[in-house]
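Reviewers of the previous submission asked for a worked example of the structure-prediction workflow described in the proposal, so we include one complete record here. The input consisted solely of the amino acid sequence. No template or homolog information was supplied to the procedure at any stage.
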Amino acid sequence: MTVTDSGRCTVPWTPGVGIQSIHERVEEIGGTLTIDTTPEGATVTADLPLVIAVAETPWS
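From that input alone, the workflow returned the following structure tokens.
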């Protein structure tokens, strides 16, 4: 998942509590969070694992 914001961003950028919480939650489920910032905006990308649940059957 990628979110891009074209608002102004200070460089160097310091993440706040919200981004830190997102980072922790993404890592808890085995994903990664990357943030790219420029004076013209920022892009936040969360690479999340895809888990497909398999229904249990009486014979499994």
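The chain has a mean pLDDT of 85. We consider this example representative of the routine output the project will generate in years two and three.
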